[in-house]
Amino acid sequence: MKKIFEKIVEGMLTCSGFVTSITILLIVLFLFTEAFGLFSSKVIEEGYVLALNKDNKVSQLSPAQIKDVFDEEITNWKELGGENLPIRVFRLEDITQYYTEEELGDAYQYAGARIMELIEKTPGIVAFVPQQFITTPGKVHFIKDNTISVKDVFAGAEWFPTATPAPLFGFLPLITGTLWVSLFAILIALPFGLSVSIYMSEVANPKVRGWLKPIIELLSGIPSVVYGFFGLIVIVPLIQKVFDLPVGESGLAGSIVLAIMHCLLLLL
Fold first, then answer.
1. Which end of the chain is more exposed for a tag (fewer CB within 10 A), N or C?
2. Burial (CB count within 10 angstroms: exposed 0-12, middle 13-18, buried 19+), residue 203
3. If you write DSSP's letter for every residue of the chain in order, what string do you get?
4. Treating both helix axes as pointing N-terminal to C-terminal, what angle do 251-267 and 172-198 enclose, rounded to 10 degrees?
């Protein structure tokens, strides 16, 4: 009877391990599939176009250049290989600055014609508008909407997935941020962790060691999300106050939280 019970338990554990392994593999596969799907996405927001005056010969812009144009960091088409013309950015919500409600219609039924009119008479304009408002495509010039390239992702210097009209998916800030946070966490944790370890193993008497060891083991069992919450409500406001910063969410806050967790690992 005992052997049968052991076989049943062994089978259950084997089945559980197999199901868990398959589930993890499927999750990883799903994440990789979704990630690689990024490279088939278009640079410009779906359903929208970047329309230029027909005389403007600029045809391609990188996501970073598009962001700089709409952030008004690039203000002349000459900087993008075009003519010496000031750039005039136009978004759909700007239309009321150019036309009255009567000219646009009660239900904006004339908005398409007005947008086309504005693009045709403004040489330096770049209009970020829904494609449906471009009623006569032959009268305007479009920025070519390429797919997101591997270079834009792996060599991109900015991570801004909510940017419009072109989101930025540069990995470099994520990679460098992770490396910097990890480096400073090690620099903070290593001396403290080693010092406490040496104290507990070589200096502390058995009574102190017996009192500290269960506390450290208890702290090491706390989920990492709890340490993250502690950092958010304690360390972040403290850093903001001490260094007189507008916000406290910084790499230093992450390094300190990570250093605390590293210290506990060194002490185990």
1. N
2. exposed
3. -HHHHHHHHHHHHHHHHHHHHHHHHHHHHHHHHHHHGGGGSBSSPTTEEEEEETT-------HHHHHHHHTTS--BGGGGTS-S-B-EEEEGGGGGGTS-HHHH-TTSTTHHHHHHHHHHH-TTEEEEEEGGG-S-GGGEEE---PBPPHHHHHS-S-EETT-SSS-EE-SHHHHHHHHHHHHHHHHHHHHHHHHHHHIIIIIS-HHHHHHHHHHHHHHHTS-HHHHHHHIIIIIHHHHHHHTT-S---SHHHHHHHHHHHHHHHHH-
4. 40
Q: Give the bridge partners for 144, in sequence order.
A: none
Query: What would the pLDDT profile of 120-165 be if each residue is shown by its tens digit?
Result: 999 999 999 999 999 899 999 999 988 888 888 888 888 888 888 9
Instruction: Find where tokens 């495509």 sit.
Output: 137
